[in-house]
Amino acid sequence: MAQFTDIAASLERQAIELPSWAFGNSGTRFKVFGSPGTPRDPFEKVRDAAKVHEFTGLAPTMALHIPWDRVDDFGALSRFAADHGIALGTVNSNTFQEADYKLGSLTHTDPRIRQRAVDHHFECIEILERIGARDLKIWLADGTNYPGQGDIRRRQDLLAEGLATIYERLGPDNRLVLEYKLFEPAFYHTDVPDWGTSYAHVMALGERAKVCLDTGHHAPGTNIEFIVAQLLRLGRLGSFDFNSRFYADDDLIVGAADPFQLFRILVEVVRGGGYAHPEVTFMLDQCHNIEPKIPGQIRSVLNVQEMTARALLLDFEALRVAQEAGDVLGANAVFMDAFYTDVRGELADWRQERGLPADPMAAFAASGYLETIAAERIGGQAAGWDA
Amino acid sequence: MAQFTDIAASLERQAIELPSWAFGNSGTRFKVFGSPGTPRDPFEKVRDAAKVHEFTGLAPTMALHIPWDRVDDFGALSRFAADHGIALGTVNSNTFQEADYKLGSLTHTDPRIRQRAVDHHFECIEILERIGARDLKIWLADGTNYPGQGDIRRRQDLLAEGLATIYERLGPDNRLVLEYKLFEPAFYHTDVPDWGTSYAHVMALGERAKVCLDTGHHAPGTNIEFIVAQLLRLGRLGSFDFNSRFYADDDLIVGAADPFQLFRILVEVVRGGGYAHPEVTFMLDQCHNIEPKIPGQIRSVLNVQEMTARALLLDFEALRVAQEAGDVLGANAVFMDAFYTDVRGELADWRQERGLPADPMAAFAASGYLETIAAERIGGQAAGWDA
Amino acid sequence: MAQFTDIAASLERQAIELPSWAFGNSGTRFKVFGSPGTPRDPFEKVRDAAKVHEFTGLAPTMALHIPWDRVDDFGALSRFAADHGIALGTVNSNTFQEADYKLGSLTHTDPRIRQRAVDHHFECIEILERIGARDLKIWLADGTNYPGQGDIRRRQDLLAEGLATIYERLGPDNRLVLEYKLFEPAFYHTDVPDWGTSYAHVMALGERAKVCLDTGHHAPGTNIEFIVAQLLRLGRLGSFDFNSRFYADDDLIVGAADPFQLFRILVEVVRGGGYAHPEVTFMLDQCHNIEPKIPGQIRSVLNVQEMTARALLLDFEALRVAQEAGDVLGANAVFMDAFYTDVRGELADWRQERGLPADPMAAFAASGYLETIAAERIGGQAAGWDA
Amino acid sequence: MAQFTDIAASLERQAIELPSWAFGNSGTRFKVFGSPGTPRDPFEKVRDAAKVHEFTGLAPTMALHIPWDRVDDFGALSRFAADHGIALGTVNSNTFQEADYKLGSLTHTDPRIRQRAVDHHFECIEILERIGARDLKIWLADGTNYPGQGDIRRRQDLLAEGLATIYERLGPDNRLVLEYKLFEPAFYHTDVPDWGTSYAHVMALGERAKVCLDTGHHAPGTNIEFIVAQLLRLGRLGSFDFNSRFYADDDLIVGAADPFQLFRILVEVVRGGGYAHPEVTFMLDQCHNIEPKIPGQIRSVLNVQEMTARALLLDFEALRVAQEAGDVLGANAVFMDAFYTDVRGELADWRQERGLPADPMAAFAASGYLETIAAERIGGQAAGWDA
Question: Could you confirm whether the keyword Metal-binding appears in this record (chains A, B, C, D) (predicted)?
Fold first, then answer.
């Protein structure tokens, strides 16, 4: 197995994008619990996201969600982010919260509503330009709840048409990243349910169209690392939405539900050349329904880092030899050896050598930031999925 | 196979309880879409529920959810219901929407919060007495999102303690019906995840404690009709929460996702003596997120009735003979014959003979009621899960 | 809704291919139960398959599985089939029963074994030519049981290489049809786990490469009719392997587990132009572990026919109108109306008008054929998956 | 967190029972691959099992499966085991491989076949007495493949009757342990599908009836550690069948698929007093379809030991404090800290201090035992599920 010193430099190239919405309130259909200090506007979200980067060195960018993060002056928001040591990243569109979109957006039967959805994406592209970011990420809530409700086939054609219109509008340095999801909020069918559908559409669009893999968007039993390997092989893995789940799209902290799965995913990322490659954006997409949000994000980026270190430590050459020899248990042992290696102590040292706190969770707690924002952010409307 | 005339009288004994909350707004964590005419108080819900009964003859009672349906004078609400031709039924408690309950209610580590949850159930029992209904139904959202967050084992003991306290307070004609659910809103563990847990608790409580089976609360691949048969055999099936699902707890219209499963469930109900038996309450528990709510409820009770008719038509004697002969295909053919029989025409006649509209969906649409309430119910706060 | 008379002629175009192996013994890893009259060679399988066609008019071809159906003279087997009123169809390869293939076939690390697997497919192509059939169907058991055991990524490249070599060898009228499967016999990863992988490979091969969709090869909760619609849209649906399942790849009689799902699949087939289109082969792939095999096949083709009739009866125009109006319940009602229509009586008439028995199951039972083969087929080695 | 020295003594109390059948050939319905050196009789299985204990100190007993392990003189087999340093343990019955049992055993409609199944269990009880072991373990393959095939409800009554007859015959020091399984080999329903059913039956039988939890026998998404905690609380956890799975009952090496789940299970075992308690038998139930069998078993017991060490290291007091404080992230961190601790080095030392090889896998490979048995065990019938 590789030594930690062999991978220390490589770890510096890791960058994990934070979702602005993880700092706002979230919940389930049963209840959204509020929490003190929740940001009330995108500027306050930037401040919170910047804290995650300050304590970990891992999160140099924050993704936006439009309209949730709409501001009058995106240039000002960019500069504000820069002043706090981070940059703005991926722009996520949202076509699931207007009454118009109740039965679909890009796939709606009504051309007026389809146009509205296209226009919304044009706005997102403009924002991309203003903040100087690269990726437009599209997750569509489009789908149906009842068999017969919609024309599954025709909706695919409408989707292709809408995506093509949006893709054409992209700048030469922009990308369109299309996310897929098995179900929710639609319960019978979704219009982009699986990676195959996303792949078929991005192939039709062009080179700068990619697939976003959200780790919580698959059917039970799906081998996600296989999809990672396949999309890297096909040159179409655009980004990750990391989180973890036990049942559905639970949006828990990445690595919390099945750490070994996260390891296997990251091994395929490394194996397939996706680590620290500009092609692949590592993003979080999580909800901190009951736990504090900034520590939740710190824990998340640390989990990704710890597991990345384990994946980088994997002795790929010994693995190859065992695989070629048909040594099932031997190959598995090489693989597990990396997973079971406790990298936490060396990562603490690594951080200290780079001027970061050895224990970011403890350091953040000691910083008093949570108490400060709880005291400061009184009044106003706490940010959330509906705001 | 039995003839329709053989079962016509039996069909008259069917009674399906409607959930008051099905008439209010509902949705997913992504969005709750409003709809015109949504009731703003329990009285308006009664009016809507009564319409379902008026057009189908199938829904003589409406269940309450507290605090959503709290009124100053439950006697008045009961009389209002009676004036509209229905009665109030099961009282459902709710310990998932107060900030106190964020980490649990009856299973919370804090005795003050556990007491609060117990007190809430005492209030529900008082309401039961005032409206003269029988069942207190308890579904707990209690659970945890992260491994280690809670002490799974101790929470069972706290749960047993809380349920015992509530059970003691019940009147001699009341029952406690304990619902189970695999997941949501908790994502790592729930405190009553399966029928076995519910069964173990109600066994410890006493004879008047029963299990509620919600058809959407199981893991993928669960054979639900087996659980129905088992609970009837054990004398512990208290009620159904009918709905249908493709993935998780989708709360779609009963019979919409897998009509054959509904048939199999109803066959076991009939086989096990649960049909038209006072022991077993047939209740709906659904969300009409995108479809109109009153027609959604009418469609639902009709679905249950149609499938009940098919189950009653099953030639149990021919089935028994084929089963005993080990005739796999023959037994299956007898079974499928009942399922594939189109009972809709005869049910239309059956309704007309009883002074009901042949086509309740069309008759309701023609009645203009939806238009009336849309016009009348302007202003105020539409009922929903959060109100 | 359409009338039965409108669809009667269309039903004549239905042709369902039978798998030769459904007539042999099959079972689970726990036990293969034998049954009297099991065929001992491909000629006896042809006789049994021909019976299914004789009593239903629905099954004019029988697919082969090599090496299970290897004979000295395929011309003789073809003529024997023709003499019995059917033809030989799809040739299925088998690279999962030789010791060499324990760790893979086309994806094996050892080039010698990969070549052996390629050669096996060349043999299958020769057989295709000799019997004058079109499709080479490839289902690979390739995969791994333990994380790290194999190089998931490299195996994709080896697979692509092997498939390309096989594809080149195909005659101009032949097709390569690539099946996918989530799991089993491999338990950690399979090399063609989903339609997306199959699609990516057939796209790389060329126009005559298609996807085979086995209805039992998906993760729980997968919307199969969506995949049907998508593959038809992409022009890559080559064939169905019909069967049904409750849990895994149960290979039960098609329509037995979820008849409504079968209906939805067939609606998309009709909607997408796949019905009676030469592009799409309707094949069964089932195991009759405990029920008699020939009646099991008769029941299966009848189930497909009955559900096809319901799908053809669907009022697509009324459906379209309701869908465009956003009438969720109305569209669903149009859809369900077709599903709930009992077509069995009219299909019995339809059969009689065409010189077929009204009740093929009863007629076959009365024919005494099962008793005849049970008496005749004494001694020898009953056909099965291992023979 | 506890120190390793604190738990070293506790680790000595660990005993894991090996399944005799893990040393024989196994496979899937597609193929059983043979391997050199496979034992041909129970004596050779004992020799192999004893090797696992010799190199690990963890596996002092071997479970039998009847009729697979039937011998003329069980006393001789017991002495042979003792001579090799191990003892014979749990006796597993088998009512799934005789033609009579095709449609059921204890639940069959035919009283003659039910009696045969009961008699088989009487034989197992006699064997228990002869070998001086405690537990009769019953896993029933009983179930049906098609809806309507069997009377689900009546089969429960027959099952209860059969179990009662068997239970009565048990000696005063014997126990009946009833296993449950979601599906396979039956595909529509199984007669003991879940822990609730097993629990209801053992409650009806008496104090010495317990539940066996096989970690691979649940629906996707089932929280297994919850069931562990519940059964320990109810005093009815009799034994584990450890293995791991990605999809169905894959019977892979325990800990191979989801090590974190194994950790969570063992934490509940420790928390609930089940560790090193005579009440709870730790058993493996695995198939080594493609990997060598003895190393597969060594790897398995080591996996259980490593994860047990992590569970024992958990700082339960710190966990309790965090749980009571409602500190979600803090409690989770305490929990994960134990999981991520690399105990392998200290376990190697622990072994050496006790005269065991530091690296049992390497030591066994170096011992030449595999080569010896491959050379010796030529001819005869290799043991397998069908022999």
Answer: yes
The H or E element spanning position A264 is helix A259-271
Three-class SS state of B210: strand
A330 touches chain D (CB under 8 A): no
Residues 6 or more apart whose CB falls under 8 angstroms from that of A331 comprise A319, A322, A323, C146, C148, C149, C150
Of D237, D301, D302, the closest CA to residue D268 belongs to D237
Chosen from A194, A203, A227, A313 to mutate, greatest number of chain C CBs within 10 A: A194
The DSSP symbol for A93 reads P
Q: How far is CA B203 from CA A293, A365, D230, in A?
A: 41, 46, 14
D116: helix, coil or strand?
helix
**Close Cβ partners of B363 (under 8 Å, ≥ 6 residues apart):** B55, B357
Which fold is adopted by the domain A4-376?
A: TIM Barrel (3.20.20)
Interface test with C, best of A151, A189, A321 (most C CBs within 10 A): A151
Tell me: ipTM over 0.85. yes
Give the residue among A336, D65, B220 at the shortest CA–CA distance from C218.
B220
- Chain C closest CA to D21's CA: distance in Å? 13
In the block, which residue shows the tokens 């991926």? Answer: A90
Question: What pairing do the DSSP bridges indicate for beta strands B143-144 and A189-190?
Answer: unpaired
Alpha helices in C132-188 (DSSP H): 152-169
Q: How far apart are CA C205 and CA C193, in angstroms?
A: 18
Say which residues have a Cβ less than 8 Å from residue B343's Cβ, sequence separation at least 6.
Answer: B4, B306, B309, B310, B313
Say if A222 is an interface residue toward chain D (CB within 8 Å): no
- Using the Cβ of C111 and the Cβ atoms of chain A, whether some distance falls under 8 Å is answered with no
How far from C19 is each of C52, C93, C175, C276, D145, CA to CA, in Å?
12, 13, 18, 19, 20
Among C40, C83, C41, C42, smallest CA distance to C62 is for C42
Candidates D340, D343, D361, D370: best to mutate against A (most CBs of A within 10 A) is: D340
Q: Is the pTM of this model over 0.95?
A: yes
Residues comprising chain C, all counted: 387
Backbone angles phi, psi at A245, to 5 degrees: -155, 150
Fill in the amino acid letter for C118: V
- Angle at CA C276, nearest 5°, toward C270 and C281? 100
CA B167/CA B86 separation, integer angstroms: 27
Collapsed DSSP state (helix, strand, coil) of residue C95: coil
**What is the Cα–Cα distance from D236 to D212, expressed in whole angstroms?**
9
For residue B344, the distance in angstroms to the closest alpha carbon of chain D comes to: 23
Give the strand pairing for B281-284 and C16-19.
unpaired
> Per-residue confidence of chain B (387 residues) as pLDDT tens digits?
789 999 999 999 999 999 999 999 999 999 999 999 999 999 999 999 999 999 999 999 999 999 999 999 999 999 999 999 999 999 999 999 999 999 999 999 999 999 999 999 999 999 999 999 999 999 999 999 999 999 999 999 999 999 999 999 999 999 999 999 999 999 999 999 999 999 999 999 999 999 999 999 999 999 999 999 999 999 999 999 999 999 999 999 999 999 999 999 999 999 999 998 889 999 999 999 999 999 999 999 999 999 999 999 999 999 999 999 999 999 999 999 999 999 999 999 999 999 999 999 999 999 999 999 999 999 999 999 875
Task: Give domain limits for chain B.
Answer: 4-376
| CB atoms near residue D110 (< 10 Å) | 13
Identify residue A259 by its one-letter amino acid code: P
Q: Give the span between the Cα atoms of A199 and A180, in whole angstroms.
A: 10
Are D145 and C252 an interchain contact pair (Cβ–Cβ within 8 Å)?
yes
Which residues of chain B from 67 to 96 reach within 8 Å of chain D, CB to CB?
A: none
d(Cα B79, Cα B70) in Å, to the nearest integer? 15
Give me the count of residues in chain D.
387
Q: What are phi and psi of B218, to 5 degrees?
A: -120, 165
Q: Say whether A189 sits in a helix, a strand or coil.
A: strand
